[in-house]
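Supplementary Text 2. Reproducibility record for the structural model of the 422-residue chain.

All settings were left at their defaults, and a single model was retained for analysis rather than an ensemble. We include the record here because the model underlies the residue-level annotations in Supplementary Table 4.
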Amino acid sequence: MKKRFVIILGFFPVLVLGQSLSVQELILKKKESFLLKQYGQKLVNQQYERKLLNLDRLPVVYADANMQRNIIIPTTPVPAIAFDPNAQDGAILPLKFATKWNARAGIQLEWELFNPSTKSKQNELVLNTEKAELELASEEVKWQKEAILAYASVVLATEQYHIAISDSSNYAKILNTIQTRHQEGRVGNPEYITAQQELERKIIMRHEAWAVLQEANVELNKYANLDPIQFLSSDMTEIEKYIEQQVLNSYDVQLLETDKKIVLNQNLDIRRQLLPTLSMNGFYGQQFFSNDLNLVAKDAWYGSSFINLSIKVPISAYFSQGVAFKKVALQEQLVDYQLQELAMNERNDLSIKQIKLLNLKKRLLGLLKIEELAITLEKEQYIKLTAGRILVSDFQRSNSDLLKARQDVWEVKYDLIKEMMQ
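Retained model, structure tokens:
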């Protein structure tokens, strides 16, 4: 399978005609993130929950039909004097009021006119929707930070790979010169072997730089499809400028404040549960009574209709709500402690961030100067080496110092971008 890896325009100008990807364009790719789509779906679900709760306030109307066979018709004792004026006092007359078959068909209505928990449920859904919005925004910021770091990793890994290619290529030329001198007897065997070993190290470093670039490319591919991309158009300076222009907020405080609102709403809900519940139900239809199962017999059907209004007063709740109040109060206090801790940590983190940024910027300036001096020294040592005035080991030291200086610069640039987004 053919693999394509992202490389930097400045290093390979031949790819100018290919499709590029800037850091700004990378951030627009968040719309394609499956993780963010999941959080967006959660937000949509919360919005539908609110709509469904509003629909619950409407009366429920449905068709109701049933049929019953009385295997044993129940007998009800009634005072005999109700049917026989001459009956003795206290005499009982057993009567059967039911038939073998009875049925009912009609329209049933159920309507909850007042439920003290409805308002709390509405507030809870509103707060859950607000929390889902904050979680989505928080994940978007997290996604942007990780995507920018992945982008910067590819930029630095590409630069490192380019340097490794150039370094191994240049040293191969040096080895050819040393080999010629060895054949002429001007260079000893130990120095020639040392030069061969150093070239192998350069080749190994090139392979390692390529592996790092591959890993960085795979990581960046999590945030953007790199198949059509030929090069990245933003360098480290542009990445830093882009980060400085962005407001990468932390939503931890807002999320905790929303949690506190949810706890307060639970407290109100407990109080509302002490209020009565008012509901209404009704029926409009007909009932069937007959000893013969003949549902089409019109004279066996009788009209039936009623409206019922009921009220429920939670008496036992007055004695059991104390524990619930204490539980909610503890939850509210817990959230307050978390908010205070978070506020304190954010102040401390901000101070630490400013100190780190200042230190990293100063360190970067110093390392860039060291890199510049290392480049100058390596060039001078290279001239001396090609002229045969120094040993290979002397050049290797200056070359190693240059590579170390460059590695330090790359690491500080990455740390600087990472710290800027904290």
